[in-house]
Amino acid sequence: MNWKPITSVDQISSLIQESNSDSNVGVLILKHSTRxxxxxxxxxxLESSWNISADKLxxxxxxxxxxxxxxxxxxEIFEVRHESPQLLLINKGGCSYxxxxxxxxxxxxxxxxxxx
Length: 116
Prior knowledge:
This protein has 116 residues and is α/β, with parallel strands linked by helices. It has one domain: 3-Layer(aba) Sandwich (Glutaredoxin). The chain contains four helices and five strands. It has helices spanning 11-19, 37-48, 68-77, 106-114; strands at 3-5, 27-32, 59-63, 86-91, 94-100. It has a five-stranded mixed beta sheet, with helices on both faces. The chain is globular. It starts with a strand and ends with a helix. The model has no long low-confidence stretch (mean pLDDT 94).
């Protein structure tokens, strides 16, 4: 996977614009705690089974420990409860899919974008 880091609140508006692009099916955000083993394994499992092109679905990574303020803004803007780890599919400016903990999987994302 080609993770692009999210490091500031200012990037959220760019992510929303990118999610509206006709050239992709949205953007994916992984909210990840670098201090949590569950988060580590969720990220590792996602990466090991990922088959979606970065052109089709750009992937973003948010380090929750360093950028908690950004995570809080994402939760507020997309009206999702903060969880860690958490995967968000942003499409047409809104969150069309959210998964946390053991629910995070490449297969679930593939299923979501196949039906959108």
